[in-house]
Amino acid sequence: MVAPAVGAPFGMVYLEAMACGTPPIATTTDGPARTIKATGTHATGWLVAPDDLAHTLTAAVQGTAERRRRGTNGRQHIQATCSWTRTADRYLTVYDTAPPR
C-alpha cells in the first residue's frame, strides 16, 4: 500500500494496511513517521523522502520476503496495540483508575 501524503496528521490508512498484513510505503512526514517503524527487525513498512519513492517501490515489489516480513510485523504490531481487545483494556484501565465524582 502506497500513500505518499505530505502533511497527513495521523494516517489511519497506514494502520489499516498493517492490520491487513500489508506493509505501507509512506513519506517521512508527520503522521506516517509516528505510525510506521521503517528499520530493524520489527520494521512494519517503509518511510522515504518523497524523492526516493520510486526506488523504494521497486525494492518493495521485488523483495517478496522482505515485504512478507514487514507485513507480518505490522499485523502483529496492530494486534498488540490497536485491537479492539487492547483498546477496550486501555479504556477499562482509565475508568477503573478515574476518581469518583
TrEMBL record:
Q: Keywords on this record?
A: Transferase
The segment(s) forming the Glycosyl transferase family domain are 2-76
Q: Which InterPro entries match?
A: Glyco_trans_1
Q: Name one GO molecular function term.
A: glycosyltransferase activity
The record, for Pfam families, names: Glycos_transf_1
Per the record, the domain of life is: Bacteria
Q: PANTHER family under this entry?
A: GLYCOSYLTRANSFERASE, SPORE COAT PROTEIN SA
What's the name of the protein? D-inositol 3-phosphate glycosyltransferase
What is the species of this protein?
A: Streptomyces malaysiensis
Phylogenetic classification of the source organism: Bacteria, Bacillati, Actinomycetota, Actinomycetes, Kitasatosporales
